[in-house]
Amino acid sequence: MAFEGLTEKLSATFKRLRGKGRLTENDVREAMREVRLALLEADVSYKVVKDFVASVTERAVGTDVLDSLTPAQQVVKIVNEELTALMGGTGAKISMAGSGPTVVMMVGLQGAGKTTTTAKLGGLMRKQLQKRPLLAACDVYRPAAIEQLKVVGGQLDLPVFEEGRGDPVEIARNAVRHARDHGSDMVFLDTAGRLHVDEELMDELKRMKAAVHPNEILLVVDAMTGQDAVNAASAFDEALGIDGVVLTKLDGDARGGAALSIRAATGKPIKFAGTGEKLDMIEPFHPDRMASRILGMGDMLSFIEKAEAAYDEKQAAKLEEKLRKNRFTLQDYYDQLQQLRGMGDLSQLAGMMPGGLGRQLQGASIDEKQMAHTEAIILSMTPLERENPKVLNASRKRRIAAGCGLEVVDVNRLLKQFEMMQELTKQFSRGRMPAMPGVRGGGGRMHGFGRKKRFK
After folding, report:
1. Which of 95, 117, 189, 289 has the most CB atoms at less than 10 Å from its CB?
2. pTM of the complete model
């Protein structure tokens, strides 16, 4: 995950500071030397590191310590505030059109993941803002680019406008007209990836901008390219005047220096971050939350938002009533598994949890194969069997196993896990919700997960 190495080094530095009763100027400067090295190793540009360390040092040396903070905590607080400012201070949103469809031009280098990101953003806008996006295939040069957009658009159930390998500028103009005529309130133009030194293709982007007057030009940048990402952002901004950046593959680079350098180098905000390959793995970029995660303080706001997105209030109320009456069924077990899956990758959730709690989850992941087996077994049961597993005799178990293509031993294993879950629900006091299924309380294990970890 991004910033993993930086987080470890900063945590070690601040741990040494906390061991001191009061901090001298030398203590602060020594800590800042460690911070500087950690940032440079994270591939943050030298000028950004130099200015950042100078700003933190100036604030930390001789500063008044708040009554509620120790000197070490005060330094951490200053570093947190400066990191937040470095990445833009506050989250930036897409500028929406006052009338007609909002036009978003997606630009970037070849291989940055622009086509997939275009579809991801369309899906996010529909999910979060109830928009009706149209994806437009304006990349007429890369083989299969149009087909790729149609495939990912189809997976998200988003309409795709394409006119084959014609003039990209004319396709963009027609896509906006089509959106206006057919009720789409956003248009995402998937343009061809290009080198920022390719003058002919850059001129094409300028002509497209002049033709459709986009409300937003978003540069898609591969976080794993480090300082090359910053150079590309500067070049595209100079040529086109970009409005923001989307960082992709942020989950694949343990350094993450691009995220800390782009804003300082271009003055343009990072608006979204891709956190994985799945089409729902994109999220708005919040500088303050990212700063907290870098410092090992977690990001509980994002964690809560993910939980709320997967949380069905009516279903929860129904489940609570069943728990009160000790009537937890296999159907309830199945429903809870679906909510757990909706929260996403556990290793990503770990980065949102502060300190030791996050480290305990680090590396854990849902075993999709085991989850699929569990779902197949439950779905092979009759409604009666899901509501009352006690009726499952040997004959019924054989039928269920045959129906889902598994063995009777797999059915028995699931029933054993379910019995444990039922025992657990008996321990909850009135009105309390249980833990997610598959997680045993009091230092138990997580069942159905790829890597078994004991929680303390």
Report:
1. 189
2. 0.63
